[in-house]
Amino acid sequence: IIRFPSRGVGLRITADPVFRHLMLYADPTKPFFCIEPQTNASGAFNRGRWDDSEEGVIVLGQGQSAAGTVSFMPFALQSKAAEPAGRRPPAWHCR
Questions:
Q1: What is the mean pLDDT of each run of 10 residues along the chain (95 residues)?
Q2: How many domains does the chain have?
Q3: Which end of the chain is more exposed for a tag (fewer CB within 10 A), N or C?
Q4: 90 near 1, Cβ under 8 Å?
């Protein structure tokens, strides 16, 4: 979950388990950032440990395929008083 309190909105990101890694790019001189769910760790192909499950590299043979789904769902933020009691999921807070 990413929250933008000054805008009153948030973004919920869900992904299939195949997307175990997340790349975040944020140039401090730009008014935007990019989020890219990934199946493999950054630099995994360069390290060459393709059989290491932590690296997440998927090696496909001829005619094979891999698939997964990622959802980006915007939502309106609720006021503190209106939020349900209990632990909220971890979130990034942006301006």
A1: 91 93 93 91 85 87 95 87 50 52
A2: 1
A3: C
A4: yes
